[in-house]
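Hey team,

Filing this mostly as a record. A colleague (T.K.) asked me to run one chain through the structure pipeline before their review meeting, and I want the input and output archived in the tracker in case anyone asks later how it was produced. No errors, nothing strange. Just documentation.

Input sequence:
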Amino acid sequence: MRVVIDACVLYPTVLREIVLGVARADLITPLWSERLLEEWARTAARHGGAVDATLTRGAIAGLAVTFPDANQPADPALEGQLWLPDHGDIHVLATAITARADQIMTLNLRDFPLRELASHRVVAIHPDAALYQLWLEHPDKVSAVVAGVHATAERLSGEVLALRALLKRAKLPRLAKALG
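Output structure:
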């Protein structure tokens, strides 16, 4: 499944690491554009300052190595032909169309109405729904990815973190319940 990952999914660390983990496990093919990656970097700088901005730029460079075919620039001419409720998200849909994506993974479903996406054969899906579905289809792989991200979060925080609470904070309540 070819999935455009919206910037709002890339910024929260736990959510991003789980999504990229399922991509590393070959359960999805991640796609993005330079503009989406730039949105992620700006959000990190706005919320976390210069240190987060620097870390994000390093992570973006790492993604280019790990997923060399993921960067799919949208056709600028296509953007002018599209409409979405939030004009700032048109580039996400254009990226999905250009990359022949099946899905747009986003936390902002209301910004991607089904009627606007249907003719382009793409659907918007919340990461919780997407990851829950992947867990139903590949429980061992998804569980292993989540366990790895959980262990890393505990190691970095120096604290014991309840898995269910960690996933809920990452906006993954269904997955939390399934794995909890």
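Quick notes for T.K.: The chain has one domain: 2-179. The longest strand covers residues 2-5.
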